[in-house]
Design a protein that fits this description.
By secondary structure, the protein is mainly alpha-helical. It has helices at residues 34-43, 48-60, 89-102, 121-135, 168-174, 177-186, 198-227, 241-259, 266-287, 293-313, 319-328; strands at 27-29, 64-66, 68-70, 85-87, 113-117, 144-148, 151-153, 194-196. The strands form four sheets. It has a two-stranded antiparallel sheet. A two-stranded antiparallel sheet has the order 3-4. It is elongated.
Length: 356
């Protein structure tokens, strides 16, 4: 907004009504790039909320964006007569994006993917693309926008000035980085605002400890009791194993889609991972009643297959825990979710006990 368009003006210094005065400052005219921007917006993948913003700008006439302000905070404008003004942060950040892109020798011709919050959408879809068009017309613009809505704290906006916030250090003092990542991604504000609370984070931590860690600890303990700590020579099998294997393959396909650009949805990914672990828990409880040693070993081999797959599948969400699980299983292979992700561990491989 331009300052004169706001209502209920009040001076923060004297509480009186401010007066309008003319001044000179720098603007970036966007209207001359209407054809180029329209073509870009028609090609880039974007959520409906951002698309509506673009349509609104076109219907009202593309703006002239003020890129300097009278202020003593920020990077000064390096032009005589305007050195008491500073540059708009999103304007002076644009060269930084170019420098980041320049670090990649294999930047795809179709352009990178931009991640941002909706509060920055105005600048990301209009100001920065126009700056890039002026700098280098052939520069590949983003091929997709991945956008979050507002992430609130216990019902209201995060605010440093009101001290209504939880810092990363505060959250990490209460839990691990993996649990924090899982919780935040499970509550990602996709298409709607969502809420963060420390009590919710504690609930996620309990669920991961009970369902994920509890299953893995029971599995490794049983492995040492039944198989002397080495992967059994039986193939994965047992009651409901074919169904569990099919569901796991479908889950992996869904995860590949959730991690892709076109289907990017890490909120969905956390749900799939939770379902995989829940299914493994159910399989384990079913086979806890197995009377034969051979049957128990087949169920252990099946669960180890799921655990090895989980180490790959959860890596983008929980990188540290996934690496620890892979190390525990002696799996140093590629972590990509390829077609052979659901592969049994080699028989005889030793697996160390889990420290409580």
């Amino acid at each position: 907004n331009d300052c004169q368009e706001t209502s209920d003006h009040t001076c923060r210094l004297c509480d009186g009504p401010p007066t309008l005065r003319e001044m000179e400052r720098f603007f970036l005219p966007v209207q001359p790039y209407e054809a180029e921007l329209t073509s870009f917006w028609e090609q880039v993948e974007m959520p409906p909320h951002v698309e509506s913003l673009c349509e609104d700008m076109l219907s009202k006439g593309l703006p002239e964006i003020a890129i300097s302000h009278p202020s003593n905070w920020g990077i000064p404008v390096p032009v005589d007569g305007f050195r008491d003004q500073t540059m708009l942060p999103l304007f002076e950040m644009a060269p930084g994006f170019l420098l980041q892109w320049g670090e990649f020798d294999d930047l795809p011709e179709q352009g990178p993917v931009k991640f941002f919050g909706f509060d920055n959408a105005y600048f990301q879809v209009a100001l920065i693309p126009v700056l890039f068009m002026q700098f280098e017309p052939d520069l590949p613009l983003p091929r997709a926008f991945v956008v979050n809505e507002f992430f609130r704290l216990e019902g209201s906006k995060f605010s440093t000035s009101r001290r209504h916030l939880v810092t990363g250090a505060d959250a990490l003092a209460a839990t691990s980085s993996d649990a924090l990542r899982f919780h935040v991604l499970a509550n990602r504000p996709l298409g709607r605002q969502t809420d963060f609370s420390l009590s919710g984070l504690a609930g996620t931590q309990r669920r991961l400890e009970e369902n994920w860690n509890g299953w893995l600890q029971r599995l490794v303990a049983q492995l040492h009791t039944e198989c002397g700590g080495s992967v059994p020579d039986q193939q994965p099998d047992g009651y409901q194993w074919p169904a569990l294997a099919r569901r796991s393959e479908r889950a992996l396909e869904d995860l590949r889609d959730s991690y892709s650009v076109r289907g990017f949805d890490l909120r969905r990914a956390t749900m799939i991972l939770d379902q995989m672990v829940e299914a493994a828990n159910e399989f384990a409880f079913l086979h806890a009643h197995c009377g034969s040693t051979r049957g128990r070993k087949r169920s252990i081999a099946a669960q180890l297959t799921i655990a090895s797959t989980l180490a790959k599948a959860a890596a983008p969400i929980m990188p540290k825990g996934s690496r620890r699980l892979a190390d525990l299983l002696g799996d140093s292979g590629p972590s990509a979710l390829g077609p052979d992700a659901l592969t049994p561990l080699p028989a005889g491989r030793p697996i160390a006990p889990i420290d409580e």
